Known about the structure:
CATH superfamily of the largest domain: Butyryl-CoA Dehydrogenase, subunit A, domain 3
Structural class: alpha+beta
Largest sheet: 4 strands, antiparallel
Strand content: 5-15%
Bound molecules: coenzyme a persulfide
CATH architecture of the largest domain: Up-down Bundle
CATH class of the largest domain: Mainly Alpha
Strand order of the largest sheet: 2-3-7-6
Order of helices and strands: HHHHHHHEEEEEEEHEEHHHH
Radius of gyration: 21 Å
Amino acid sequence: MIRDPELIDQLVATISRFVRARLIPNEARLAEEDAVPAELLAEMKEMGLFGLSIPEEYGGLGLTMEEEALVAMEIGKTSPAFRSVFGTNNGIGAQGILIDGTDEQKARYVPRLATGELLSSFCLTEPDSGSDAASLRTTAIRDGDHYVLNGTKRYITNGPEADIFTVMARTDPDNKGAGGISAFIVEADTPGLTRGPSDRKMGQKGAHTCDIIFDDCRVPAENIIGGQEGKGFKTAMKVLDRGRLHISAVCVGVAERLVEESLNYTMERKQFGAALAEHQLVQAMLADSKTEAYAGRTMVMDAARRKDAGENVSTLASCCKLFCAEMVGRVADRAVQVHGGAGYMAEYAVERFYRDVRLFRIYEGTTQIQQLVIARNMVREAS
Ligand code: COS
């Protein structure tokens, strides 16, 4: 749903200008310094990027899913690590509180997330539980007016910087399944919470992950999301439904950038007496990438509109994540191929994107988890 087409066109155009004038020229620096430059972070806050999908009543821009998808596609046209910092606040960091939190929890945390004053992060994965999220072992045992958390969370995006964490933990140790899990808001300076060293990753330099360790970490009982035990797994799944659509839109944006890089390079470089783009075998790769990026854009926009209309898009969000993450992998591979030797060299953006996009097939649910969710929902609906 687009509430005001003119306003959204303006927002997308403003973001597009920011991406081209400020972010793309700083991509190499982001990768080299492994950090988003402070001045760019300040500009992102100023533009309201930390509160894109946070409702206006909490100081955000309150974008609908369709509007958010358009914006995410634009932001996807630069290094994904730029998006990672504020995307987590809008997405998996804040959505748990927004979807299932109490009014007090929303009022306490969300306005500061919307401005970027607070950075947030989502703690589901553990050393022994990733795809099988319901088997998580971190415990949260009630003790008076607190819960005592023990356990380790792994590969936590924004972990080194986050001020608050949405943490899924088992409040009922006798219930080993999804129903024993609750979600908590944990402030980073709570005694008993420590951060591991930053992980050394294949790509997406500038976006940081680390372990978050809870050792008798006492969290006020009022910080259980929604005020009720046993709802945390469902909260996490609902957050991921939205997150998967957002990531799919980012994949589309990256694919479109890679098509542009490929077209520009192949129109300039000559071989066998003609521009690469004149050679039919190269044209085939350009055409396949263009077609696949377009298919991704179309399906993400359709699923986003349906979500705004109130449909349950759990299956469609997984379809989008499955297709778009795999699609951008193929597009990145072709982008390297049409660049030839240059595509293997660090001074060309496609080399970096080739490594960056590999993560899309893994995080917020692997391709195989998306297949499982889609097929399971199909069977359930037909039975
Ligand atoms: N929205 C709301 N509720 C949902 C839901 C959704 N999208 N998906 C599942 N649920 C509910 C189910 O309805 C079920 O509720 P009931 O017990 O009341 O019937 C409950 O949650 C448990 O669901 P399910 O039985 O499907 O859980 P499983 O453990 O069998 O498997 C998968 C769930 C595999 C789909 C889940 O663990 C998953 O998505 N794993 C990947 C996790 C992930 O993406 N990790 C990435 C790290 S976060 S960046």
